């Protein structure tokens, strides 16, 4: 098999390349690419997701640069293309889009069979969770991604799509901004059955859950630390992320019965 030279500028896509069996072809990744932990250390770091070293990336002469339209900047994609580098840019917002992205990247790096297996797993698990949630009572939730200012997500996000599969209803889903600022008073008024505090990009800890509970009057057991990688990394982590989101909603539903 012809060995390609790949640069990945998105952590979830770096993980995907490894899981597709093409990790040896990565010649550049970002400082935030941390999985698989045992293998990323040997790969050259070419900057961050928002500040990649474009000239260095071009000098590596990659056959392909993988980018994400939310994680990366369009001006960097254009600069790479102007330097003659081929860019594969994606922006999945739900499980169907993620399956399509996996297939597309698999085709681009000659790993179509491995990509098809992951994509079918995404589709199978999504269908199972959607079917299991049919007829179940919706669970209102809020997902906080930042503190000072407090920020949440609207329905046009990958996180929302995963929870919606399982029968969740985003109490801030109608906000116009994808990542709206919210006040704790608004959170209290919306009365979610679960408040999820993510582990990234802000690393929420139990003391922050205590703070939210005290400020809003929402019972502490309803304020839960949630794994941000499972809920926002789209790619080979998505099958387990689908099941993880279902488990969080199912636990909230069980608590109310």
Summarize this structure briefly.
The protein is of the alpha/beta class. It contains 10 helices and 8 strands.
Topology of this protein?
Blueprint: E1 6-8, H1 11-19, E2 26-28, H2 54-59, E3 64-68, H3 74-82, E4 87-90, H4 95-108, H5 112-133, E5 139-144, H6 158-165, E6 168-170, H7 184-190, E7 194-198, H8 206-216, E8 223-226, H9 228-232, H10 238-255
Parallel strand pairs: 1-2, 1-3, 3-4, 5-6, 5-7, 7-8
Helix pairs in contact: 4-5, 5-10
Written account of the structure:
The chain is an alpha/beta fold and 257 residues long. Helices cover 42% and strands 13% of the residues. It contains ten helices and eight strands. The strands form two sheets. It has a four-stranded parallel sheet, with helices on both faces. Helix 4 packs antiparallel against helix 5. The protein is globular. The mean pLDDT is 97.
């Amino acid at each position: 098999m012809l060995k390609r030279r790949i640069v990945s500028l998105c952590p979830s896509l770096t993980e995907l390349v490894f899981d597709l069996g093409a990790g040896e072809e990565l010649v550049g990744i970002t400082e935030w690419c941390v999985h698989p932990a045992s293998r990323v250390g040997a790969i050259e770091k070419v900057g961050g997701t928002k500040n990649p070293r474009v000239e260095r990336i071009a000098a590596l002469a990659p056959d392909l640069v993988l980018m994400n339209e939310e994680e990366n900047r369009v001006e960097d994609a254009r600069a790479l293309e102007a330097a003659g580098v081929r860019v594969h840019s994606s922006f999945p917002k739900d499980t169907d889009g993620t399956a399509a992205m996996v297939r597309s990247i698999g085709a681009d790096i000659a790993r179509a069979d491995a990509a098809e297996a992951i994509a079918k797993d995404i589709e199978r698990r999504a269908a199972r969770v959607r079917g299991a949630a049919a007829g179940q009572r919706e669970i209102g939730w809020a997902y906080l991604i930042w503190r000072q200012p407090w920020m949440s997500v609207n329905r046009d996000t990958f996180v929302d799509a995963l929870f919606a599969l399982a029968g969740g209803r985003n109490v801030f889903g109608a906000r116009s901004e994808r990542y709206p600022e919210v006040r704790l008073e608004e959170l209290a008024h919306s009365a979610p059955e679960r408040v999820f505090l993510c582990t990234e990009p802000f690393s929420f800890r139990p003391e922050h859950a205590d703070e939210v509970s005290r400020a809003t009057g929402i019972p502490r057991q309803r304020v839960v630390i949630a794994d941000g990688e499972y809920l926002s990394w789209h790619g080979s982590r998505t099958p387990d992320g689908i099941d993880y989101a279902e488990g969080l909603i199912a636990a909230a539903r069980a608590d109310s019965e």
